[in-house]
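Translate sequence into structure tokens.
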Amino acid sequence: MRSSLLSTHFRPGAQFVLSWSIPDSFGGMTGALLHRSRAFVEQAGRPVDILTLDDRIDTPELEQRLRADGEVIDGMRIINIWDWFRAVEINGRDDGPPSHEHDPIAPGPNVQESGRDGVVLLRELRDEDGQVRSVDRLRPDGSLLVSDRRDAEGGTRNVVLYDSAGVPVRSWGSVWGVYRHWLDEIIGGQESFLIVDSKTAARFARTYRRRNVVTMHVLHGSHRSADGSALSASRRSVLENLADFDSVVLLTKAQREDLVRDLGPFPHLAVIPNGFDHAAESSATAQTRRRGRGVMLSSLIARKRVSHAIKAIARASRDVDVTLDVFGEGERRPLLEKTIGSLDASDRVSLRGHDVGARSTFATADFMLLTSKAEGLPLALVEGMAAGCIPIAYDIAYGPADVIDDGRNGFLVPPGDIDALAQRVVALQRLPERAVESMRRRARATAERFGDASVTRAWAREMERAYERKHAGDPGASVARRIRRVAGRAKRRAVRLSGGYDDSDA
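Result follows.
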């Protein structure tokens, strides 16, 4: 911990981060939450527990790898819900055990097993369509920990928790009940701040309301559909209930303005961008830079449109000497490999896979590409600019236009225009070196305001404001908030039924 930097004062309280999972080849959202957590430790001396809800059975090994890579540092822990239950003694309630009890799932042709060190920890029974119908989570000794049963229509669910002797001690009609119970056990009665990054976890987290817990949700991506004509379907249930959080954090002012236009005013919206470690980036920029080398840090999924970047480089390479290294993994990799082959661009474009050191390439690359359909404010964009790597990005919502002054510290391109993207790559290569260096200096200067120290201070201020709003103790204010919530839900229901979004000023 860099004690000389502990200048940020946080309100007393435990710090928790809630996300659905931490994938092996994680992208921007997970990278941002890990970076923010490190900044809380280093800038404010506040430990952070990262809580996950998935059925990943190698979380301890994952944390070790992340520590070795520097993604997790002392003061940070990763705690998975099911590993936590496996490690604690489970006791019954005073009112006796639940009435439900399930027969364990027996191994069979439709049963998928997962485990660690040769020990089965998870059994999933699937139907003919491949849908999960029953789940057993087991302890290392083979005893049943949690049984989860769903009917064929998906209307009834029962989740039962067992002690080490196999006796059922608690049951819920939803797995969300288990999540709430777990958070109560983890957090207890201590004053706490719970930052929810994952949109999947946010659907549950909005229902978790405790007086001692300030809940804060970060929207890492756009809240609108790809064409901007409606609310994002995957975020709708959360967006229509934003008032259930004590604070909602957007990455850019432009998104806050659009969110207010779409859903009406909320008193608890804040804008806090993703931060970066300026000291690390400054030292990295001393490395030798190679003109013509482009980099892209991106998951290989449809929303990122990596194929556009590949095609643009193939077209630009007809006129100038350029290459592109793409760092990241995803389901579109086979299709992207075919695209590279069909364009005969294998000597120009390389898919490098997931690389924990990918960000260091910003210091040696000439430019970076961003071709997504929508974003929040990508951490990689700011990190690249801080290293003097010139950004060439689609002018999408949100992020690029908030930091790129076209032609001065980078380039903005009409979204989806591959020819314009290629032309900007060519134009950059033809600029005089003095003009390019001036652009790099301006890119670094722009990134200065996103340093960890200032961003962590912004988090400290918003936590204080969120705590004060939650504990204002004004009955009138509470009534007014309920009225706004009801009115807002009515408006959003009308918007949903109309199939679009309301762009009027509320």
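Note: Residues 320 and 427 are 9 Å apart (CA to CA).
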